[in-house]
Amino acid sequence: MAQSEKKLHHDDTPVSWPFDVSHEPTLKIGEVREILSAEFPMLNVSKIRYYETIELVVPHRTASNQRLFSRADVARLQFILTEQRDRYLPLTQIGELLDQLDSGRAGDGHPGRMRAVAHDDVPRPKPGTRLTKREVADLTGATVEDIEELARLGVVEVDPRGRLTSHAVDIVRYATMLIDAGVDIRQVRSVKNSAHNHANMVRSVLAPQLAKQSPVARERAYAQGSEMSALLVKLYQSLLVENVEIELD
Fold first, then answer.
1. In this prediction, what percent of the chain has a pLDDT beyond 90?
2. 158: pLDDT confidence band, cut at 50, 70 and 90?
3. Mean pLDDT to the nearest integer, 136-154
4. 55, 3 in Cβ contact below 8 A?
5. Strand pairing class (67-68; 130-131)
6. Distances (CA, A) of 188 to 6, 110, 167, 182
7. Is the pLDDT at 7 greater than 80, yes or no?
């Protein structure tokens, strides 16, 4: 994304969205994180720096090479984080949306009205794919540090080569959304532990099929395991919604 460092035309008109917010660089990176932390508590300075390296946001650089951000930069970061959290968009597509806003191709420039990419168009890795932490970070908007913390607490599984399953993309997305909503990361881990226990229950039920050690029996066990998993999800959803309603009544 080509952007001027000062993001101004010669007549001081902003050339990057949002146009109606101050582009005066007055905020240090820590101040930017503090402003956004109420809505995005997991945001850290390394994530902001990463957005800079891929030019989604381009802060001003002083003579001593210090980053200074404007209120427009803060609004831009808020847009990026919201699109990742609420629509699970990869950063490449968010960059395209920002390009549309910068060029005025998004109508009145209101991000809430621009929905050029449908949720179903979000790319997902094929089942069985192994992904690096950086690949999961690019698909989810989480930082590598976020993913490493989730792995340290056992929320996502990392193999001996440092790779994650294709399911890690959704696990990281939903775990991050819960944490952003105020759920403690250790409570997220308790959900993982519950899933592990129920997976053991499914395996126990299917043990007779697996003991046959034939390809047909194993395929049948996989199919039954998928069906049981879907039933468990539906049961858990119903129980959770009921209990939340009772607690909030």
1. 39
2. very high
3. 89
4. yes
5. unpaired
6. 42, 34, 16, 11
7. no
Q: Which residue type does 181 have?
A: A
Residues near 95 by Cβ (< 8 Å), separated by ≥ 6?
1, 54, 55, 56
- Is the predicted pLDDT of residue 207 greater than 60, yes or no? yes
Half-sphere exposure of 20 (CA within 13 A, CB side): 4
At 39, is the pLDDT very low, low, confident or very high (cuts 50, 70, 90)? Answer: confident
Residue with more model confidence, 146 or 14: 146
Q: How many residues does the chain have?
A: 249
**What is the per-residue burial (b if ≥16 Cβ within 10 Å, else e) of 196-205?**
eeeeeebeee
pLDDT at residue 43 in the model: 85
**DSSP labels for the chain?**
----SS-B-TTS-B-SS-TTS-----B-HHHHHHHHTTT-TT--HHHHHHHHHTTSS--EE-TT--EEB-HHHHHHHHHHHHHHHHH---HHHHHHHHHHHHHT-STT--GGG---S-GGGS--PPTT-EE-HHHHHHHH---HHHHHHHHHTTSS---TTS-EETTHHHHHHHHHHHHHTT--HHHHHHHHHHHHHHHHHHHHHHHHHHHT--HHHHHHHHHHHHHHHHHHHHHHHHHHHHHHHHHH-
Q: Can you tell me the distance from the alpha carbon of 244 to that of 241, in angstroms, rounded to the nearest whole number? A: 5
Q: Is the pLDDT of residue 61 over 90?
A: yes
